[in-house]
Design a protein that fits this description.
The protein has a single domain, classed as Flavodoxin domain (Rossmann fold, 3-Layer(aba) Sandwich). The chain is α/β, with parallel strands linked by helices. A hairpin with a 2-residue loop joins β3 and β4. Strands 1, 2, 3, 4, 5, 6 and 7 form a seven-stranded mixed sheet that branches.
Length: about 140
Amino acid sequence: MQIGIIYCSQSGSTKKLADGLGEALGIEPIDIAKPHILANYDMLFVGCGTYNDVPSDLMINYVNNIPANTIKGAVIFMTNATGKDNTQLLVNGLKAKGIEVFEKHYICPCKRWLFQGKRPDNHDVQRFKKFGVKIVKALQG
């Protein structure tokens, strides 16, 4: 099974999650802001932050330009200040490309305000690793 991880990260929060999952799965995450070639994947983890309750414009544009029939399934992960699930634009874009989107998304609060600590922290990364590994194991049967 071909598994990939793509992400974009303005503050480093989403990168932290992508790197953690990449370590757990033995996969090098792809920063979509850097030159790369997107392979055909059975499952692609798609991660970005949200800004004003909307996924990153960079990721929305990227998803809208994925060639049809190259990716079978996708799992969305996000970081944002509210912890809300703001994935609908990405879900719509992926489904428009014929990509089946896993119904459960991983949403990580990303707080950097005074007295609230920095997130994602190591606990968040460990939880995301478990989430991703569990999905991959279930798909591999």
